[in-house]
Design goal:
elongated
């Protein structure tokens, strides 16, 4: 497959929006952790401790999602530079690696969403009792 200069550029809007979504998730969870931490200091319970542990795991996943997304974006830029310098083979190779890293970021996002939904379901079950 022949990758032109515009092919990696097509991923720029998608990766940028993805990173924005990841950042919003991170900020939301950071706010939840701060609130739960304050509650835990006032009234330490195992439930709050478990929720903080779950959120800590999710924050680590989001960090990794962001890292893979950022490296993917960087490699897109590098592949464009290599193609611009008429190093077609290396540009295509770097672009392929960029796509793989983006897929890893998306898989981590799916895992994070599953953890989030599982935590919400546990809380809803607790409420139903």
């Amino acid at each position: 497959m022949d990758v032109s200069l515009t092919t990696p550029a097509l991923l720029f809007p998608a990766i940028s929006l993805l990173l924005l979504a990841y950042t919003n998730r991170f900020l939301t969870i950071a706010g939840l952790i701060r609130g739960l931490y304050k509650s835990y200091k006032e009234n330490p319970t195992e439930n709050i401790k478990a929720q903080i542990s779950n959120l800590k795991r999710r924050v680590n996943l989001i960090k990794n999602m962001q890292i893979f997304g950022i490296v993917s974006l960087f490699l897109c830029v590098l592949s464009m530079f290599l193609i611009y310098e008429e190093l077609q083979f290396y540009g295509s190779l770097v672009f392929g690696i960029s796509l793989v890293l983006l897929m890893i970021s998306l898989v981590l996002s799916i895992i994070e969403i599953q953890i989030s939904v599982k935590a919400l379901n546990i809380q809803l079950e607790d409420m139903e009792k």
